[in-house]
């Protein structure tokens, strides 16, 4: 078993969070344990508790890496958008693809619960805000005179709708009619088309 000073705090954080994400490639978060993560990286569970504070905070640190990856994915999607697929549609399509490719890590973003007296750290709030900023900036391109508050609200409405479709897609509970191809993409495009048409035309 490795001693606490075998790695720097930054290295230990990197090792533990990478191991969590590696496990999530094939294992749901509900089946992970502090003991198994600690064993896999050669440390004791107590060392990880002393370092992160709790198993939940270790998972939150892994979530931070997932959010970083998601941000880069969506940022890239924006820059590859074209006339046929606007920035917002590119973001939504990339978001769905990310959820499909990394379902366990994606689910953990929303399933993880901290203690009631444990606020979300600022570093995590900043990552979430950065993701919404991507949406808000694309909304401003469609409606340059929109108020900041209106863009913030619209970004959350769109995210909530796309999030719901992604969730139901992963759970195979869209209950789409037989023969409907790529129903999740169709639903997302319908949502964006109708909502954005109404939003851009509103005073």
From TrEMBL:
<dbReference type="InterPro" id="IPR036271">
    <property type="entry name" value="Tet_transcr_reg_TetR-rel_C_sf"/>
</dbReference>
<dbReference type="InterPro" id="IPR009057">
    <property type="entry name" value="Homeodomain-like_sf"/>
</dbReference>
<feature type="domain" description="HTH-type transcriptional regulator MT1864/Rv1816-like C-terminal">
    <location>
        <begin position="88"/>
        <end position="192"/>
    </location>
</feature>
<keyword id="KW-0805">Transcription regulation</keyword>
<protein>
    <submittedName>
        <fullName>WHG domain-containing protein</fullName>
    </submittedName>
</protein>
<dbReference type="InterPro" id="IPR025996">
    <property type="entry name" value="MT1864/Rv1816-like_C"/>
</dbReference>
<keyword id="KW-0804">Transcription</keyword>
<dbReference type="Pfam" id="PF13305">
    <property type="entry name" value="TetR_C_33"/>
</dbReference>
């Amino acid at each position: 078993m490795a001693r606490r000073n075998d790695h720097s705090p930054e290295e230990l954080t990197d090792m533990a969070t990478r191991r969590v994400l590696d496990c999530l490639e094939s294992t749901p978060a509900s089946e992970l344990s502090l003991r198994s993560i600690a064993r896999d990286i050669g440390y004791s569970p107590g060392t990880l508790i002393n370092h992160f504070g709790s198993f939940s905070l270790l998972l939150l640190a892994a979530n931070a890496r997932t959010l970083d990856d998601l941000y880069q994915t969506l940022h890239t999607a924006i820059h590859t958008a074209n006339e046929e697929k606007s920035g917002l549609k590119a973001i939504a399509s990339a978001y769905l693809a990310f959820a499909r490719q990394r379902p366990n890590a994606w689910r953990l973003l929303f399933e993880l619960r901290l203690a009631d007296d444990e606020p979300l750290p600022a570093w995590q709030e900043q990552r979430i805000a950065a993701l919404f900023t991507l949406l808000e900036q694309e909304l401003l391109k469609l409606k340059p005179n929109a108020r900041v508050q209106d863009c913030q609200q619209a970004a959350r409405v769109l995210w909530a709708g796309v999030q719901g479709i992604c969730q139901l897609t992963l759970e195979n509970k869209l209950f789409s009619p037989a023969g409907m191809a790529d129903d999740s993409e169709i639903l997302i495009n319908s949502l964006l088309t109708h909502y954005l048409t109404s939003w851009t035309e509103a005073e």
